Amino acid sequence: MGEVFQRPRVEPEERQAFTTTFERDVLRRFVVCAQCGERMRKRSEYQLDHEIPREIGGKHAVENVRPLCIECHKAKTALDAKVIAKAKRLAGETCTGPSRRPMKSGRPLPGTKASGLKRRMNGTVERRNPHGEA
């Protein structure tokens, strides 16, 4: 009942450049931005985007690539970053060490329980009672 789901780790394929042949095949499928529908006339008006990000298992294939206008691509990339980060957290790829940083050896910070001092609301400082007595 208390089982935690862990996503299997996905190794993305080696990054490949978009060749002109690959880009032409993508543009045969789309002549407008796949997100907002704006017509694209020049190469400087759009960027190619993987619909399913490669980091979470998307393939570098014509079926998974689509053109997006610059603004739509920025928005989708921001959303993809959140999805990829969550997928990595579920796969346990981000938390390799202890959940808290280890304390530095030496003196504790003033005002913490470890220092043994307590500051009252009126500004005075007094020693904490180590046994919790009043």
Describe the structure.
This protein is elongated. It has helices spanning 20-29, 70-91; strands spanning 46-50, 65-69, 117-119, 125-127. Strand 3 and strand 4 (125-127) form a beta hairpin. It has a domain at 20-91: DNA Binding (I), subunit A (Orthogonal Bundle). Helix content is 24%, strand content 12%. The longest helix is centred in the middle third of the chain and has 22 residues, at 70-91. With 134 residues, the protein is an alpha+beta fold. The strands form two sheets. It has a two-stranded antiparallel sheet. Strands 3-4 form a two-stranded antiparallel sheet.
Short description:
This protein has 134 residues and is an alpha+beta fold. The protein has a domain at 20-91: DNA Binding (I), subunit A (Orthogonal Bundle). The chain contains two helices and four strands; from the N terminus they run H-E-E-H-E-E.
Which helices and strands occur, and which strands form pairs?
Blueprint: H1 20-29, E1 46-50, E2 65-69, H2 70-91, E3 117-119, E4 125-127
Antiparallel strand pairs: 1-2, 3-4
Task: Give short descriptive properties of this protein.
single chain; about 130 residues; alpha+beta; DNA Binding (I), subunit A; two-stranded antiparallel sheet; 2 helices; 4 strands; elongated
Q: How far is it from the N-terminal to the C-terminal residue, by CA?
A: 43 Å
- Give the CATH class of the domain at 20-91: Mainly Alpha
- The name of the CATH topology of the domain at 20-91 is DNA Binding (I), subunit A
Structural class: alpha+beta
> If helices are DSSP runs of H or I spanning 4 or more residues, what is the number of helices?
2
User: Radius of gyration over alpha carbons?
Assistant: 27 Å
Order of helices and strands: HEEHEE
Helix content: 10-25%
Q: Roughly what fraction of the amino acids lie in strands? A: 5-15%
Average the pLDDT over all residues and give the rounded result.
80
User: Strand order, biggest sheet?
Assistant: 1-2
Number of E-type strands:
4
Q: In terms of per-residue confidence, which ranges show pLDDT below 50 for 5 or more consecutive residues?
A: none
Largest sheet: 2 strands, antiparallel
User: Judging by the overall fold, what is the CATH architecture of the domain at 20-91?
Assistant: Orthogonal Bundle
